[in-house]
Specification:
Strand order of the largest sheet of chain A: 1-2-8-11-10-9
Distance between the termini of chain B: 104 Å
Helix content of chain A: 10-25%
Number of domains of chain A: 2
Structural class of chain B: alpha+beta
Number of strands of chain B: 50
CATH superfamily of the largest domain in chain A: Probable tRNA modification gtpase trme, domain 1
Number of strands of chain A: 11
CATH topology of the largest domain in chain B: Arc Repressor Mutant, subunit A
Mean pLDDT of chain A: 85
CATH class of the largest domain in chain A: Alpha Beta
Largest interface: A-B, 42 and 47 residues
Radius of gyration of chain B: 37 Å
Radius of gyration of chain A: 16 Å
Mean pLDDT of chain B: 93
CATH topology of the largest domain in chain A: Gyrase A, domain 2
Order of helices and strands of chain A: EEEHEEEHEEHEEEH
Number of helices of chain B: 26
Strand content of chain B: 25-35%
CATH architecture of the largest domain in chain A: 2-Layer Sandwich
Shape of chain A: elongated
Largest sheet of chain A: 6 strands, antiparallel
Oligomer: heterodimer
Strand content of chain A: 25-35%
CATH superfamily of the largest domain in chain B: BFD-like [2Fe-2S]-binding domain
CATH class of the largest domain in chain B: Mainly Alpha
Distance between the termini of chain A: 24 Å
């Protein structure tokens, strides 16, 4: 549900999210299997996009893979089967809420709480990190089209409210968020979003 | 003509834009560009306020944020705000200010009596004087002293102010603190070399000392223009760096005044948290006072401040100024005032001859060499000075309408000291300079003890050069090639700290600390400079005693017979100036004060009429009714006891544990054994802290051989995850285990009551729910209302019960399906209150009983503890004290008179010894099935008292209810129902 204001766009993005954690010494095996499934896994602090999937890594040997919505649990089940014995595969589609925040002023809003340097020189496209904003955990990913923010689902509304009010202070009026989780915009075409 | 007045054109004031303002009710006029202080001086006003302790008349002493005396109340639309500095408050049309700490008026102040009885009010007098009687301190003395002391007064907390601040995080290669000649030079050279620079200046205009020297006007303008053309340099005027916190983190407060504030929606302050790779402290030096009797009278001012008022605002602080100084630098004010047409000047120079004195004499100015000021003549203002030779001879008096003093210059070292820089004594300037670690940054200019503007420019460039090289820019960009006026040759300082003569000689003007107070502290054993500070409060006021700090140390050094370099200065701490709390809170106020966690079904609960309660960050449905009282709670709870209810348990912590060593790890974390758990089964478990006390409880289910799901209590979800992560990484690094937080992924609902099996069977397609196939404590994956989820047969209520878990985004459809399936049985959603009622009468514990002070035995869990195998908390759980028979242990309580209620927190006492608490009621509720109230309590000796009668006493309610001590398991003690 896109909402545009001068210099600022805020959209909720429904995607399937799978968390994959490799058992000790199995990270390369997991990466090989993922590559075979068309999803190259990035190094720590990085994000990669391929074939409509976005993979990011903010913990050692652990990845989040975002993909367009499939029937409930199907994404996780496929990865579970592929990675059996190599690690833990968890469906986190309901665990995180994804927001895309873009526009020339997006960084100006986020510096009101974000301690990470979001200057494109310091945080170029393809960078990912975990931090705290508005007192809740947030995973930040720099895409070519803007920033992707992942925040725990149960505090997502709080974070969104803070984001809207911080935006207002700068004179922007982002759209009110639809709290219905079934918003289907997804990451289809995410491939063109990274450089 | 006498007194202060505007006599010339000021660099910052606009004569074409007069501004009206009021001070103490009197209308006055200033100019755009004035501070309140310069406008008051332009109106001939010297008396500004009364002092903190002695209520002595005080005036304006400085021209900047180091001001100790000129504090005023500012009366705005939002109310009264105390302690604004007149020296930094920018004048605006309609400004209303009032003097502080006087009653009934500034001219006649009753408390000035304190000044006359001062010999009875030495430093620390309240520790000595108000000793007896004992009761009087709290009830009499302290209230009196508090009323007499303090400066401004707060009207009330003003809500509107709270929104007018924000926090911003900044990142830069180099932070340059101070935009004087050194700072401007460094910022320009670094910026031109391609580094990002933030230049923070507390003043509203950039330039520092260059603003006060006409020969540097072109240099200043050209450099500022060049800086604003560099996009990688951000100039921040009105921005004070408040604290240096290490690792390149700095806090700075930016004041947004006037039009700037209006364009930001009324924003007044912006707290900037700056992360920089290097810092340059070009913070300049502060002129210091000299302690002599009467050095606090209105009209006694620092010489450099008088120069600032003349150059910046065109205001002469007097028409017949006397000077008392000991450096050539301070003569700049003499020459400036003489050049502005002030004719009757007199200089008292501590030194016996100097280059500057010769220049002054050549201009026809009277200079008294080798002399000191012994006293100031006048009561509420300067009428003259009494001068003597340094040896005390040749006393004489001179007329004067102000006294401009300068005891030398102290490099501004507070920020460097906060970063641990040691202070080094410099005889040449009689001051300390900091040894800043090069890994942090550099000092530059006067902050480094290099005096003179041309020297500052060279020094700023040198600092820029080394920092650019350290940050990978081997060649520094060329400078602007501007002409630089050379620094005049100067005769060195002759340090003078105090003139000892009759009368109060102040070292701290804001806290009214005299040199005699410092000596008293030394005599009474407070010899260390930090002890002296605390005993006398020297340097503890809002100005941090900056203009007299070193003077106090010098007086102490003299009293101790030590060199000043050994006595040192007290350690400065953040913040370097007062900060409004609103600025620290930033945007995290009101609804953003603290995060709210909402259940996946929050909107449904709200629409169903739930009252919410905040537990931790969670908003949880308390009861599905807007009515207070027990009726709705008991209706919900009885639905569970009699038929079926549904409750949202999604707040429980859920931790996914996988890996070859998962079972071993859980055995180590939990006090009881989990490795023997069969796949498809759940087990109740408790975990201890290292000290042997119970940390948390919950059920753990084995989903596969190497896959467990741990549930934690709502309150401890984050604590337990951290506890497990810590022990996995630090204590069990050999274990191959993966912990994942899945709390937000799963919505979890309890369906409880004798009819729950029928309801669950209606929504779960692929699972035989009979007790044979799916007994108590069974767990299985299942399809629930078409959604892949999990079913657990666990019970918190004590009834036959199931918990259904589904991915949260499908929670609503499953919840609605269960409600539809339960409709024939009258299913009721139940909230936290009903949940509590059910668990209390069943004797299940929660945070009220697992309160950090209870061990396993206290709660009846002693048989769960593994005997042979190690686990966290095992050793200390075997402490003798934890087995003591008089420890408080879990019991049930019931009023003997069933009509009486119980209260949480009531003390259990014996009828014969009502003042000795034996324990207390932790949880209580009206029962669903038993008559009257039931409760849980922690009672010394616990079950030994079973069957006895005690009193549950709540003195604040003036109640004492007779109760009997019973088993905590008051409903279905044989646990038959859960196995139905």
């Amino acid at each position: 549900m896109p909402g545009k204001a001068a210099g600022l766009q805020l959209e909720t993005s429904a995607s399937d999210i799978v968390e994959i954690a490799a058992l000790r010494g199995r990270a390369l095996d997991v990466a090989r299997i993922a590559l075979g499934r068309g999803v190259p896994l990035p190094a720590l602090g990085r994000a990669l996009v391929a074939t409509g999937h976005l993979a990011l890594c903010v913990r050692p040997d652990r990845w989040l893979i975002l993909s367009p919505p499939a029937p409930a649990g199907a994404s996780a089940a496929a990865w579970q089967a592929a990675c059996a014995g190599l690690g833990a595969v968890l469906d986190q589609s309901s665990g995180f809420s994804a927001l895309e925040f873009a526009g020339s002023q997006a960084r100006e809003v986020l510096v009101r709480s974000c301690r990470i340097d979001l200057d494109p020189l310091a945080f170029p496209v393809g960078t990912a990190c975990a931090t705290i904003m508005a007192q809740v955990p947030v995973i930040l990913v720099a895409l070519a089209s803007g920033l992707l923010l992942l925040t725990p689902a149960t505090t997502a509304r709080h974070f969104h409210e803070w984001l809207v009010s911080a935006s207002r202070l700068l004179g922007f009026e982002p759209p009110s968020q639809k709290h219905d989780a079934a918003v289907s915009d997804g990451l289809a075409g995410a491939g063109d979003r990274l450089s | 003509m006498q007194g202060a007045a505007r006599i010339a054109h000021g660099l910052l004031t606009d004569a074409a834009r007069p501004l009206g303002f009021r001070f103490d009710g009197r209308p006055m006029q200033g100019l755009a560009g004035d501070t309140l202080a310069s406008a008051l001086l332009a109106n001939g006003r010297q008396l500004i306020g009364r002092s903190f302790k002695y209520h002595r008349p005080r005036g304006i002493v400085t021209a900047g944020p180091e001001e100790p005396c000129a504090l005023v109340d500012l009366i705005g639309a939002g109310g009264r705000e105390p302690n604004h500095l007149a020296t930094t408050l920018m004048l605006y049309q309609g400004l209303v200010a009032e003097s502080q700490n006087r009653w009934p008026s500034l001219g006649f102040d009753v408390m000035a009596l304190n000044d006359l009885v001062a010999r009875f009010l030495p430093a620390g007098f309240y520790y000595k004087t108000f000793m007896a009687p004992g009761w009087a301190w709290e009830r009499l003395y302290e209230p009196l002293i508090r009323r007499a002391a303090g400066l401004g007064r707060l009207d009330a907390l003003v809500g509107e102010h709270a929104a007018a601040a924000e926090t911003v995080h900044d990142h830069t290669d180099v932070l340059v603190v101070g935009a004087g000649v050194a700072g401007l030079t460094a910022a320009h050279r670094l910026g031109a070399s391609g580094l990002t620079v933030m230049l923070a200046e507390q003043d509203a205009v950039l330039g520092g000392g260059a603003l006060l020297d006409a020969r540097w006007a072109d240099w200043r303008q050209s450099t500022c223009a060049a800086l604003s053309a560099l996009p990688q340099v951000r100039c921040l005027p009105r921005t004070t760096v408040l604290g240096a916190y290490g690792h390149g983190v700095f806090g700075a407060l930016e004041n947004l005044a006037g039009a700037d504030a209006a364009s930001h929606g009324g924003l007044r302050e912006r707290l900037r948290i700056i992360r920089a790779r290097r810092v340059i402290f070009a913070t300049g030096a502060l002129e210091r006072l000299i302690a002599f009797p009467g050095n606090d009278l209105p009209g006694v001012m620092l010489a450099g401040a008088a120069l600032a008022y003349l150059r910046r605002y065109g205001v002469a602080v007097g028409r017949q100024p006397a000077f008392f100084l000991n450096t050539d630098q301070a003569y700049e004010t003499v020459f400036a005032l003489a050049g502005a047409g002030i004719e009757r000047l007199g200089v008292i120079d501590v030194r016996r001859g100097s280059l500057a004195a010769e220049r002054a004499r050549a201009l026809g100015i009277e200079v008294h060499d080798g002399a000191v000021v012994e006293a100031v003549i006048g009561r509420a203002g300067v009428g003259g000075v009494r001068v003597a030779n340094r040896d005390g001879g040749q006393r004489r008096e001179f007329e004067a309408d102000c006294l401009l003093i300068s005891g030398g210059y102290c490099p501004a070292t507070a920020l460097a000291s906060q970063l641990g820089a040691a202070l080094r004594w410099q005889d040449a300037i009689a001051a300390f300079t900091p040894d800043l670690s090069p890994a942090v940054g550099r000092m530059a200019g006067a902050a480094r003890g290099v005096f003179g503007l041309a020297a500052a420019a060279r020094n700023g460039e040198a600092a820029a050069r080394v920092i650019a090289a350290e940050l990978g820019h081997a060649s520094l960009a060329a400078g602007l090639g501007l002409a630089v006026a050379p620094d005049p040759a100067a005769t060195p300082i002759d340090a003078l700290w105090e003139v000892r003569a009759r009368g109060k000689a102040f070292v701290d003007l804001q806290n009214d600390v005299t040199a005699a107070d410092v000596r008293l502290a030394q005599r009474e054993g407070y010899e260390h400079v930090e002890h002296m500070k605390r005993y006398t409060t020297h340097g503890m006021a809002t100005d941090q005693g900056r203009i007299g700090g070193l003077v106090g140390s010098a007086v102490l050094a003299q009293a101790r017979g030590l060199p000043l370099s050994e006595v040192g200065q007290p350690k400065p701490r953040p913040y370097s100036q007062p900060v409004p709390l609103a600025a620290l809170a930033g945007s995290e106020v009101r609804q953003h004060l603290k995060p709210k966690r909402r259940l996946p079904l929050h909107d449904w609960h709200e629409a169903a009429g739930a009252s919410f309660v905040t537990t931790g960050l969670w908003l949880r449905p308390l009861v599905y009714s807007r009515q207070t009282g027990w009726e709705a709670v008991l209706r919900e709870a009885r639905a569970v006891r009699r038929s079926v209810g549904i409750s949202d348990m999604s707040t429980l912590g859920k931790i996914d544990v996988q890996g070859p060593d998962a079972a071993k790890f859980l055995d180590f974390i939990y006090a009881n054994t989990l490795s023997t758990l069969a796949v498809g089964r759940s087990r109740y478990g408790i975990m201890l802290r290292e000290d042997g006390m119970v940390l948390d409880d919950g059920t753990t289910s084995r989903l596969a051989q190497q896959h467990f799901l741990v549930t934690t209590t709502t309150a401890n979800a984050a604590v337990v995850l951290e506890h497990m992560e810590f022990h996995l990484q630090a204590m069990c690094p050999q274990f191959d285990v993966l912990l994942s937080d899945v709390a937000d992924q799963w919505a979890q609902f309890a369906i409880a009551g004798p009819r729950s099996r029928e309801v669950v069977a209606a929504v779960v397609a692929d699972l035989d729910l009979s007790s044979q196939a799916f007994p108590f404590m069974a767990a299985s994956a299942a399809t629930i209302a078409g959604v892949a989820g999990r079913v657990f047969r666990i019970s918190f209520s004590g009834e036959l019960a199931y918990e259904l878990a589904v991915p949260a985004r499908h929670g609503l459809s499953v919840w609605l399906a269960v409600l539809a399936a339960g409709q024939p049985f009258g299913i009721e959603p139940y909230g936290l209150d009903a949940l509590n009622t059910l668990r209390i009468e069943k004797g299940h514990v929660t945070a009220a009983e697992i309160n950090g002070n209870t061990c396993a035995a206290d709660l009846g869990f002693q048989r769960m503890l593994k005997q042979q195998v190690d686990f966290i908390g095992r050793t200390l759980s075997q402490r003798a004290g934890l087995g003591a028979p008089d420890r408080m242990q879990l019991v049930g309580v019931r009023p003997v008179n069933r009509a009486r209620r119980l209260r949480n927190g009531s003390h259990l006492v014996a009828p014969t010894a009502r003042t000795t608490s034996l324990g207390y009621v932790t949880s209580s509720t009206p029962s669903t099935e038993l008559p009257g109230w039931v409760g849980l309590a922690l009672l010394a000796g616990g079950q030994q008292h079973s069957g006895q009668r005690l009193l549950a006493s709540s003195p604040i309610h003036k109640e004492a209810t007779e109760v009997e001590i019973v088993s905590p398991h008051m409903i279905d003690p044989e646990n038959v129902r859960v196995r139905a």
